[in-house]
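URGENT: need a sanity check before tomorrow's submission.

F., can you look over the ArsR family transcriptional regulator record below? I want to be sure the sequence and structure line up before it goes out.
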Amino acid sequence: MRPIDEQILEVMEKEGNMTPDALDKLDVTVANYASNRLSLMAKYGLVERIVKGLYRITDDGIGFLDGRVDASKLERVDKDADN
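Structure tokens as predicted:
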């Protein structure tokens, strides 16, 4: 996890479902980097891909923000999350 991942999750918890472009428009990070980070977080279950390019925060993502989930202990849940 990188600091930007927590920022992305915080925005998603507050604003709801997000696309990389929406995160870019909110000045969280540039769209390409947001896309990469979201894909990686989806592989570990912190976010879920609804359709290509649209993600929602999961219970584990909220748990990470609340301190109930240790990201270093997460296992890869979806090897094809970014395909």
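My own read: The chain has one domain: 3-73. Residues 3-15 form the longest helix (13 residues). If you see anything odd, call me.
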